[in-house]
């Protein structure tokens, strides 16, 4: 009798994923404070320099707060106005048959300054309303506690996660929402793409890097504070909601050696280790020994308090979630033909095509990733971001024929099915941006991921009217067939 699983398990969690700062809008309504995302200025493509990392200086913050940048646009403050359209949007998710919807709570909507004595009731009530609307349709919320939304008050007071003081602020926030939503939310995540801190400390942790002398030291110290906070939140979640599951979240960057040259293979192994370092701490409960040499060679000394190691070891995550958009190809040779679209670098892989934004498309890499991570951790896996950012054309009759998006998702879901047959315990899949929203890396609207089109352009113009793309009907059928029809 065969023991190979032939398809997606019963109860597989199909859905879509979003973030408050790219979706909600209403940045100054009902008592919400400013967050790090509210400080991100839109820069048109023709004026951009460098990569995707978002760094903001102390001087820029002062100019923004003083009103000096009168003509600047802040798209993440407005999103697609989910705050006022959530019923309409959730009804569309339900029409597709979503089993789960991933969203984040904007910390600054609950504690406007991050360290307020009491939470903001209007903010708490908003998420009550959203969760109630989801449950009306039988959709489970999957909630991220911190998705690039550090309250600006904590940046101004403590330089964000660079300070250990923020751990207490975060655990107070986590406890508040666990108690409030204990009967409404059973799936939680602590930090979105926690490794983002290494390429954009302001995005990942509200850290203004020009305030510090040693950038790498500050980044890894801030990460230690987030690791401890994540473990403490895991402890609180299990105590307050015993039947809940709480996980970590990684921007997974599976990488390949450019050639069979042992130098390429060694460098690739090191790149993979440094990416999996984050899930090693969350899932295994300790710092891996391979990081010791990296820390020493980069003059990094992690300042720990008594009990930190015990906290990490005792309160590990229930499952591991990750985003997957691309793979990297690693060469030990300097220079080379760089893959500029890839967030974490690497050289071009000649066997792969790329998206409109230069992200190399690798469906087989998802199967490799799933097998690698399940072999390593033997914990349930959850793909909580995957999708294709592309330009969409609205036809004269209003239709949008996004066959390229369907092809991308079809190929990746097929590889998920293969990984399940390989023996991987995969519990769910939430495609990124089921409805068009503001891009994290570029703050564009034209970089669209959704099954649902939103009438808004890069300059913020449009009616915000929602409409179904061809992929909407395709994904609806995928869910109805539990992945058996692609």
UniProtKB/TrEMBL annotation:
EC number(s) reported in the record: 3.2.1.-
Presence of keyword Cell membrane: no
EC primary class: hydrolase
Keywords: Glycosidase, Hydrolase
Organism domain of life: Bacteria
Pfam families in the record: Glyco_hydro_1 (PF00232)
Entry annotated with the keyword Protease: no
GO molecular-function term, one example from the UniProt record: hydrolase activity, acting on glycosyl bonds
Coiled coil: none
InterPro entries: GH (IPR017853), GH_1_N_CS (IPR033132), Glyco_hydro_1 (IPR001360), Glyco_hydro_1_AS (IPR018120)
Active site (record annotation): 385
Family to which this protein belongs: Belongs to the glycosyl hydrolase 1 family.
Protein name according to UniProt: Glycoside hydrolase family 1 protein
Source organism of this protein record: Paenibacillus enshidis
Classification lineage: Bacteria, Bacillati, Bacillota, Bacilli, Bacillales
